[in-house]
Amino acid sequence: MDIVSSVLGDINAIVWGWPMLILILGVGFFMSLGLKLMPILRIGTGFKLLAGGVKTGKDEEQTGEVSPFQALMTAMAATVGTGNIAGVATAVFLGGPGALFWMWVTALVGMATKYSEAVLAVRFREVDEEGNHVGGPMYYLRNGLGRRWAWLGSAFAIFGAVAGFGIGNTVQSNSIAQVIETNFGVPELVTGLVAMVLVGAVLMGGIRRIGSVAGKLVPFMAVAYILAGLVVLAINADQIGPAMALILESAFSGHAAQGGFAGAAVWAAIRFGVARGVFSNEAGLGSAPIAHAAARTRDPVRQGLIAMLGTLLDTLVVCSVTGLVIVTSGIWDSGESGAALTSAAFGLALPGVGNYLVAIALALFAFSTILGWSFYGEKCVEFLFGTRAIKPFRVLWILAVPLGAVLSLDFVWLVADTLNALMALPNLIAIVALSPVVFRLTRDYFDRQTLGVPVESSGTGS
């Protein structure tokens, strides 16, 4: 097992190394330029669509299973997770405060990637045997690039289905059980069983119930965490200016901390900022478009404009709150890392309360990730084996929750993290190969907007 773990560790270092990070950032830059920075310039349009919904008739409502808002919340349920608390802290610990700046850069280019994923997901989605809309990288690889590329779609589905049981299930339930046991003294098995019952109650209702629960849970937990963070930042208000200066300085000139010398520190800031940014918002990994494919909309661009907000909210808002709390606390180089560092930063400003706030937030974020990733895994399995595999998958997913709560998962995490990175390869190939489709649909949509022509179907696969 030690040999296997060592080999997997080497593979993981490669798939999450510089080539992958450059590829993910490169695709994001390419799509941003091809879209003429539209995702950044049209953020207001995205929020307007999100707030107003898609104003359509009865026929339009039959083209998906959940509202565009619920589709976004389902995607965010999976992305707003432990990475927003523990991942950001690890990035700051290993890369210095400058890692935050590179997380922001990753998010800005990642908006174009996430937009493109959602556009392709709606454009090339299908209706399965049960009458539900299904889509994602495996479908736009097969339907967009042709049958000879279907094997890449199958590879994505295999990576996603297996990785989901680790990164989207057992690792999350383990985080919930540990944080609850540490802060509230509840045995890990008890927490695991309670989580299993709650997950089961949601999953058996399918995407409609997942979307409904996510539509309520995600806004609540995100807003509550952001408000708690803003309270801490208000307490540390005199440190916000120096903290921002430190972040910008460290991003380009390095900081003596972990790198040993300035050049190494700069590279560390970029490496860990980009890696943790991608891990947090999942732009380029191909997971979120699976949820957006189920949205009630006929126009791919509309859903793309809504989908890109997930990256904005996840990284530029939630992760920024965590990072700024840590840097303004002045203890980012104290030796603590992960969730312990975030908890210490909150606890310093809110003694006796801060650590419990972080514990509850971490538990809710991890629980929502289990729900979001359950849908991703389910659709990957359905692509491989058909709708008959859905119910057995749900049963296995529910049973895995308490197992993850009580087992040591270092090896599982290593396997899942490696497969999670491998998901990105087929997806990024599809985005680049199908970029002309994204550019054309986007251009046609905004041309119609300029001319005042009513938005009709843009030729979705539905």
Helix content percent band = over 70%
What structural class do helix, strand and pairing data support? mainly alpha
Work out the radius of gyration: 21 Å
Would you report the number of β strands?
A: 2
Series of secondary-structure elements, N-terminal to C-terminal = HHHHHHHHEEHHHHHHHHHHHHHH
Unreliable spans: 54-61, 256-263, 457-462
Tell me, briefly, the overall form: globular
Count helical runs: 22
Strand percentage: under 5%
Q: Main β-sheet, in a few words?
A: 2 strands, antiparallel
* Strand order within the widest beta sheet: 1-2
- For this structure, the quaternary state is single chain
Describe the structure.
The chain is mainly α. Helices cover 79% and strands 1% of the residues. The protein is built from 22 helices and two strands. Strands 1-2 form a two-stranded antiparallel sheet. A hairpin with a 5-residue loop joins β1 and β2. α9 (137-145) packs parallel to α21 (410-433), α10 packs across α21 (410-433) and α13 (237-253) crosses α17 (300-329). The protein is globular, with a radius of gyration of 21 Å. It starts with a helix and ends in an 11-residue tail after the last helix.
What would a concise description of this structure say?
The chain has helices at residues 2-15, 18-34, 38-41, 43-52, 58-61, 68-79, 86-95, 98-123, 137-145, 150-184, 188-203, 206-235, 237-253, 256-259, 262-281, 288-292, 300-329, 338-349, 354-385, 390-406, 410-433, 435-451, and strands at residues 126-127, 133-134. It is mainly α and 462 residues long. It has a two-stranded antiparallel ribbon with strand order 1-2.
